[in-house]
């Protein structure tokens, strides 16, 4: 009896929650415009249109005219629709998606694996590869780990450089890393678009915490700065490296792992130089 009542109560609560907290319609926005122009309080407007006061408050703050602060329903509706269009959509496992997953598993299946695709950014109305890293590196959130691999590397590090140290540790523990060139991910915000001075220093700190040492940091920093077409970033990277070193900031890896990482980086550089 109790489980049935609980289920019924939760169902009714969820329906009520969706109504009170769900998306606003154009009609509701016109009502907000009218009541707001009459000087009605947020809590009154919310009561009139059957929404929670937080929904109304957020709507007015986010979708008012940025030039004069006036709320107009038509403008608010356009802004909300545009925001909804660029918002990442929930992945639905359609038959087509399932078929592609099976195909990739058959093609790249391995008990030792981390897999991911490539980041693309929009330039001149075209989606082009954001080539900040080598093609054997998987960018940030595009990665998929095998459970055993994820456990052995100790999960993710809550620090800048987390999406590099995980791959280096995968190589340390002899896990395979696979990049899929036909898996293209649209990156709506180019890397570093909103980085400030402190974030630039953190890149140098990340190089230090990865156990790179000075010379690898210098080479990697110069390469990254040139790829971003901002040579002066190189100085910020070095400042961040020495600041972390002077503060004796703890590494993200053990001494043994740091030695492996340095050897691996030097090996990759020699391969690029001498083939």
From TrEMBL:
<dbReference type="InterPro" id="IPR051917">
    <property type="entry name" value="Transposase-Integrase"/>
</dbReference>
<dbReference type="InterPro" id="IPR029044">
    <property type="entry name" value="Nucleotide-diphossugar_trans"/>
</dbReference>
<dbReference type="Pfam" id="PF13936">
    <property type="entry name" value="HTH_38"/>
</dbReference>
<protein>
    <submittedName>
        <fullName>Helix-turn-helix domain-containing protein</fullName>
    </submittedName>
</protein>
<feature type="domain" description="Transposase IS30-like HTH">
    <location>
        <begin position="23"/>
        <end position="63"/>
    </location>
</feature>
<dbReference type="InterPro" id="IPR025246">
    <property type="entry name" value="IS30-like_HTH"/>
</dbReference>
């Amino acid at each position: 009896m109790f489980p049935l009542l609980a289920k019924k109560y939760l169902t009714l609560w969820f329906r009520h929650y969706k109504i009170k907290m769900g998306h606003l319609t154009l009609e509701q926005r016109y009502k907000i415009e009218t009541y707001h122009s009459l000087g009605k309080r947020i809590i009154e407007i919310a009561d009139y249109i059957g929404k929670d006061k937080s929904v109304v408050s957020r709507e007015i703050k986010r979708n008012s005219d940025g030039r004069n602060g006036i709320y107009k329903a038509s403008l608010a509706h356009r802004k909300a629709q545009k925001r909804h269009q660029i918002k990442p959509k929930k992945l639905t496992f359609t038959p087509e998606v399932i078929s592609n997953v099976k195909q990739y598993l058959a093609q790249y299946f391995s008990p030792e694996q981390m897999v991911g695709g490539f980041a693309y950014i929009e330039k001149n109305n075209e989606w082009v590869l954001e080539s900040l890293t080598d093609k054997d590196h998987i960018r940030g959130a595009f990665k998929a780990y095998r459970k055993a691999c994820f456990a052995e590397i100790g999960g993710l590090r809550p620090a800048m450089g987390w999406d590099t140290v995980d791959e280096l540790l995968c190589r340390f523990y002899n896990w395979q890393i696979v990049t899929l060139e036909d898996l293209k991910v649209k990156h709506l915000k180019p890397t570093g678009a909103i980085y400030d001075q402190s974030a630039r220093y953190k890149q140098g700190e990340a190089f230090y915490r990865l156990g790179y040492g000075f010379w690898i940091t210098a080479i990697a920093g110069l390469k990254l700065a040139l790829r971003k077409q901002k040579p002066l970033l190189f100085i910020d990277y070095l400042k961040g490296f020495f600041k972390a070193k002077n503060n004796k900031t703890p590494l993200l890896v053990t001494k043994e792992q740091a030695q492996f990482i340095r050897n691996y980086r030097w090996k990759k550089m020699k391969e690029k130089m001498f083939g």
